[in-house]
Queue: 2 jobs
Job 1
Amino acid sequence: MRYQNATAYRFLAPYLLIFSIFWLWPIISSFLISFQATRTVPWRFAPTFNWGRLIGDPAFFNALKNTLLILVIQVPVMITLAIVMAVLLNSPLLKARGLFRFAFFAPVVVGEVAYSAVFRLMFNLDYGIINKLLNSVGLPRIDWFSNVTPAMAVIMIAVSWRWAGYNAIILLAGLQSIPQDVYEAATLDRVSKLKQFFYITLPLLKPIIVFCAVLSIIGTMQLFTEPFLITERGGPGGGTETLGLLLYRQGFKSLNFGYASAIAYTMAGLAIAISLVQLWLTRDPK
Amino acid sequence: MAAVTLKNVVKRFGVFEIVHGANIDVNDGEFVVFVGPSGCGKSTLLRMIAGLEDISGGEIAIGGKLVNDVEPADRGIAMVFQSYALYPHMSVEQNLSFGLRMNGNPKADTERRVKRAAEILRIAELMKRRPRQLSGGQRQRVAIGRAIVREPQVFLFDEPLSNLDAELRVQMRVEISRLHKELGVTMIYVTHDQTEAMTLADRIVVLNAGNIEQIGAPLDLYDDPANRFVAGFVGSPKMNFLAAQVVGNDGNATVVELANHGGARLRKPLSGAPPAVGAEVVLGVRPEHFFEAGEGDCDIAVKADVAEHLGSVSYIYANAGPEELIIEREASRQRATGDHMVVSIKAGQSLLFDKSGARIR
């Protein structure tokens, strides 16, 4: 038995080694770094230096506010959209199902830089298709990237476009696992399709919806690409700066690794806390 | 309560015809069982009555009203599914009342109906539980309860006991029988288990490959099957089929020679025209219709291969050339494996079929 265990660990060793060096050690190391003042040479142990700064830093609270705002608006909208897409994909009336499934999933595999560039072009003040469309229906064009609210809207639209299809595919798997005869029983009970959706589909899909929501919460807490590339480093004037972007700015522009580590742990802690609250709120009654 | 009438009902899936013109009259308050092997179209027929499958041709009437284009919920039927189809996220009580609540049925009436169903099925103490907290038998009771609260004219059961173990199946069979007596409503029940069909039905509809082979009371089908398929399907263990050839006709009787039993001959009186001399036929003998040597009209020698002793009776699986026969014996006369034995066939307790399987009477 012991010999078999040793063999198993020898096979696991390459993975465990790589995991330890590139995952485990950075996790521990960054936690230790968050208690050090890293703008001095050599670094010195100062337990309250970064964490104390965090509590009083307006840039941190601005980034936190922006991140939570995106989370509160974008995640529910995207999940709702994903549910609608999944239901459409699951409909027996839909033709060319494979094509739609591919189309919904495709944004995930598009390169982040490429899609960000396309979104910048689409929302361009003078040449963007969005403003052209607004003009064509008699609405004034919007300067998407010079004002905070439209810039936030662009980020939310972009993130939703990229991830709604991905969530829809996960939800579709959930939909397909609901037995057909449950719907047949409801049909015999004279329950309309709409009521079937709200009273049968949604409750039975709840564990999958919660799973998608938790994934999205974690993703949004780490949001970086869109505010970095689409709204040009959290612009205008930090109006779309997220925690991920603040971390990058502190860690890799200012080389303040201690503070960046404290921000990273705050992001992780928030993601875990919000996810736990979400799981608790949507738990199954005993 | 209502009668159910099927006239030339056809079902096609694309180019494949699954049900080829079914004609069935189910009387008001009758318990009719559709029985047949897998894929014979029995469940499809039931689902067409329920309205869950479209009809490709023919007419279905419930309570004298044509329901071809009537929505399932408006047909006055309730269905119990093989997989129970309970709403997993609802308690038993919510499962029972869901349909009524969704349709704005008065609360007091809903409560009355749910209470009555719970009392009939003895599930009152389970009302707060979720389906996953119930045993298979309890789930099936809830599924039947959900049908009862609808107070339907016709109950439809789609293989409701096939997911239960043998003991529970017997118990639920009795319960369904009791329910039919208590409610007195029309019930149509689909099963592939001929024992269920025999024990539950007022009348059985035997289906095979989308065709109705015979409709009749259980014992009528057992004693007087229309063809070899029905003779083989109804009865457990199955009827034995012995290859034979007509060697002569003698007035209103035919004489057949058993092909695998050393030239043993049986003179079988017939009411109709006898088959031609030389025709290949099949003699059907039920396991309990093999008698002790000399007691019947034709003796055959067999070698006991395997014996199953069930207590009250024993079943002897015996070989005679290429034919394997199942012979029923009283327990006191049980045989050991390897015994040579001689059994006797009575002309009056055997059936004759032609090569196509049609009965020769």
Job 2
Amino acid sequence: MANWIFLIPLAPLIAAVVNFIFGRWYLRDRAHWLAILGVAISFGVSVAVVAQVARDEVALSQHLYTWIPAGDFQVPVTLTVDQLTAVMLLVVTGVSLLVHIYSVGYMHGDPGFYRFFAYLPLFVFSMLMLVLANNYLLLFVFWEAVGLCSYLLIGFWYRRRSAAQAAKKAFVVNRVGDFGFGLGVMLIFVHLGTLEYTGVFAQVGALPQGTITAIALLLFTGAIGKSAQIPLFVWLPDAMEGPTPVSALIHAATMVTAGIFMVARSWPIFAASPDAMLVVAIIGAATAFVAATIGLTQYDIKKVVAYSTVSQLGYMAFALGSGAWVAAIFHLTTHAFFKALLFLGAGSVIHAMHDEQDMRRMGGLKRHLPLTYWTFLIGSAANAGIFPLAGFWSKDEVIVGAWVGGRPIVAIVGLVAALFTSLYMFRVVFLTFHGPERFDAHTVHPHESPPVMAVPLLILSVGAVFAGFLGVPPERGVFHRFLEPVFSGHGAEVHHVSTATTLTFGLISTAVALAGLGLAYAAYVRGAIKPAVVAARLGPLYQLAYRRWYFDEIYEALIVHPLYRLSVWLWRVVDIGIIDGAVNGVAGLVNFTAQRWRRVQTGLVANYALAIALGTVIIVGVYLIVGSTLFQ
Amino acid sequence: MSAEVLVFDILGAIAVLAAAGVVLARNPVHSALALVVSFVNVAAIYVILRAEFLAAAQIIVYTGAILVLVLFVIMLVDPDNLPEFHGGRPVQRLLALILGLALLGEVMAAILTRTIVGQPGPWSPQAVAAVGGNTQALGRVLYSGYVLPIQVTAVLLLAATIGALVLARPDTPRVRALVRDTATISLAHPRGSEMANGVEPALPALAAGQLKLEAGERTLVMAKSGDDFLDQPVWGERHQS
Amino acid sequence: MSELTATHFLTLSAALFIIGMLGVLIRRNVLVIFMCIELMFNAVNVSFIGFAWEQHSLVGQTFALFIIAVAAAEAVVGLGIIMALSRRLDTVDIDQVHELRE
């Protein structure tokens, strides 16, 4: 199968290119066929390749060509499928395929239909290349490419000012992280002279500790941007301006996990630097907690799910920071299922409510949208970590991983965040689907989505229920055995978790999740707790969470505003005053002299002849002086 | 002083005087005649310088062809178009004289101080005589080393002929002027308004007698281009004149 | 001065050339200017042929031949221009023509 790996990224690429070129004039409403076909081919080949990797337990690779052959420095374009990549391949192509199918219904009738089905396969191509790369430079290139696709898709409805702003924000914020990532890659190259994973991992242990920490932290900066960790998570909630399938695919299931993937991929570097690991764990835990508190207070259904995504990414990050590599990837995988499901379910709700996103104007939708309700409920429960759904297994394992990885405080923060997770997820469910109908029944007629949107929901909910069993029993499931070869060697620490610990944490997290469910039920169904009263009682704390911990305001005041002022100054003074002034001054000078000189241009041939004669005299005179013996 | 030098001096003096006549004569015809004299003398000098073929070519081309052409043009140009001989522009004249004298001084200085470098070529008088004379010798040189330039020259002459034809073509403005002030039937689009919204505007229906009446009022001609037509009244408009 | 030398015909050439140049600069009749240009062509030819004679080489004569051909072409076009000038602007006075301006 190794010789067919190239088909995995190529099929979506061809679909994207054809849709770009022919979509506008020829394909138009038929653009989705090619896109779905491309992604389906990609999925099929991925399954076959992964099957072989699973059977033979060796990494496959296919060398396509050498991109930069510069002496000793070689950047090959080689597609490598090891076990980690295999997991990502299945997640990316599988979720992409479902989202493509869902989008056919969701984007139906949109004037940019063809454009959507050109961007989406382009994203799939970039993401696949990102996971298939066998060196950091290729990874970086497609890291940027998925950022570009994200930008294009967030700003898909570019006529909407907010969408354009959000796209710009995502791009700029990501740039901050990517800058760090780029520096990290350069640092690797400077110190090791190679960028290929195998070479880097083999040599990285020999570097001084400070250098390894610097490299690891710089790489993690990229992950902070891409995977929306504190302090760069602000772009992800705004990214919900894009079409909902995009939110599901890019801003929940795949692209934002690129950072997690990259850190897991570079685990030998991180494992060699305990300081960097600590930073990763702290940032991950903080992100998980902060995003969960924000999620509690939001009213926009997509925003809540978005903050939930940030929070879950925080879980993955602190799992990485605790050395629980497999747990992080496991959570990534299950999260892809239930978060894509939640977003698509939210999209279905929004579709049914005629583009209403505020939960305060929903309610009682259970009767109108039974299928969406049940699938969304499954997704929420999985996200909340209710036994025995997917989220329970993976999240439990993440927390256990932090505990045994020597970070008990992080594990406790994770448990608290899990309580909030359960609370906000069921808050969404109850506010949206239960209780009285708070929308105007005369103008809004909720209707179930078409089958093309329903089928992906069903498939994803199956995944959300059963994906967790890949990791059963904990630490020794199919998933772990499959990934084991990747995360061994290079001085990997292996923590053996006792059954008692596993059981204890399983019970605790179940209790926490049920507590969240109960609180939400009490508050939003029974009305036993008045949320408004609680908010008033908490006062500043509630405001802090509701205002998203003032991150946007702080950035606005500290970075955006001064930069804006500087830009205006540069524009008014430097650009107009100096640069334009210089250009216009030169032009004015030329014009001025030309206006004087044009009088020479009499149009009279006699004057021109005279000038020619004068020139002749001068030239002959020069020749005489230079060449003749007369003056020598 | 050999006879050769004497003859050269006489011929040269006549040529220079004739050239001065070209510049000084009031009547262009006199200039042309002086030019003929000058050319013939120069041709004779060519003979002294053993360039017999070129002497013949000089007389045939210059005096035979070009000068006749010049005389024809003098005939064709309206005498009223000729400028006054005693025009103004004294400054120009003075400058011209100064420049002429300066150039003469420079060139004479160069000539008198010159030295010959380089070796004599192979075509000594004996060698020329050996191949049968100047014409044959020149032919050998031309058709051995200068085949391509000769062909380029042929193309040049063709281009000049075509250019002369284009320049001499009767001008069109007068024809255009004829078209003005007349009504127009055009196959072009009237002011670009036709086919607006994809529908051809209906031409005003004319009664049988009306057509004849209108045609009697103004001349009908064909417009050759849309530009002409823009000056014309559109269908249905009355001619305002 | 007993033998014919290059100095003779070079002097002749210079004299003819400068007379032609003066004519071009001074006269206003385009026809006369044209004739003066032909005169300058001839002056150059004299130089070429003289050098050819002095150096026992036929290259100079070949050049002169090409100059005669070019002069013929120039004559055809130049006279055509003069005709066009006379017809279109109704003048052959060089000072009346300033079409080259702007």
